[in-house]
């Protein structure tokens, strides 16, 4: 099976050595997306709700570039900087992703200053 790089201008292109997404066979891995607005390069908002919404828009853009959608996502990993942000992130997440929800893991970690959330996705596509 060929490994295919997924790239789109509708999600931020970071200066790190990574692909926005990789597809191999029916498996699509979307790299961790951050709350940068792809048009301005700026962090989208100061609240975890604003940043979660933008981060999920970025995940969605990579999914679409691969010919996938939320119905193909089987797992999301959410990285937050503060446990206190969980409820606010959950609300923004529920509005953006919608039921039925994929499996999910939430991890607390340090992100660069001003960034409150990072999210990556694993999808399985029908061929």
Strand order of the largest sheet: 1-2-3-6-4-5
On the 0 to 100 scale, the average pLDDT is 96
Estimate the strand proportion: 25-35%
Residues in helices, as a percent range:
10-25%
Low-confidence parts, pLDDT < 50 over ≥5 residues?
none
Using DSSP, what is the number of strands? 6
Q: For the CA atoms, what is the radius of gyration?
A: 14 Å
**In whole angstroms, how far apart are the ends?**
13 Å
The number of distinct helices, counting runs of at least 4 residues, comes to 2
Q: Given the C-alpha coordinates, what overall shape results? A: globular
Q: Structural class given helices, strands, pairing?
A: alpha+beta
Instruction: List SSEs in N-to-C order.
Output: EEEHEHEE
Q: How would you sum up the major sheet?
A: 6 strands, mixed
Annotate the secondary structure layout.
Elements: E1 3-6, E2 21-24, E3 27-33, H1 48-65, E4 73-80, H2 86-97, E5 103-108, E6 117-124
Parallel strand pairs: 4-5
Antiparallel strand pairs: 1-2, 2-3, 3-6, 4-6
Helix pairs in contact: 1-2
Brief characterization of the structure:
Helix content is 24%, strand content 29%. It is built from 2 helices and 6 strands.
Written description of the protein model:
It is a single chain. The chain has helices at residues 48-65, 86-97, and strands at 3-6, 21-24, 27-33, 73-80, 103-108, 117-124. It is α+β, with helices and mostly antiparallel strands and 127 residues long. It has a six-stranded mixed sheet with strand order 1-2-3-6-4-5, with helices on one face. A hairpin with a 2-residue loop joins strand 2 (21-24) and strand 3 (27-33). Helix 1 (48-65) packs parallel to helix 2 (86-97). The mean pLDDT is 96.
């Amino acid at each position: 099976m060929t490994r295919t790089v997924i790239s789109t201008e509708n999600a931020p292109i970071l200066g790190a050595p990574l692909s926005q997404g990789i597809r191999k066979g029916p498996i699509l891995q979307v790299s961790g997306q951050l709350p940068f607005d792809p048009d301005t390069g700026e962090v989208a908002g100061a609240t975890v709700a604003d940043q979660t919404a933008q981060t999920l828009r970025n995940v969605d853009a990579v999914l679409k570039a691969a010919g996938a959608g939320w119905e193909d996502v089987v797992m999301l990993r959410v990285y937050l900087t503060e446990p206190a942000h969980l409820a606010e992130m959950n609300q923004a997440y529920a509005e953006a992703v919608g039921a039925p929800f994929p499996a999910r893991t939430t991890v607390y970690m340090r992100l660069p200053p001003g960034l409150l959330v990072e999210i990556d996705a694993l999808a399985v596509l029908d061929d």
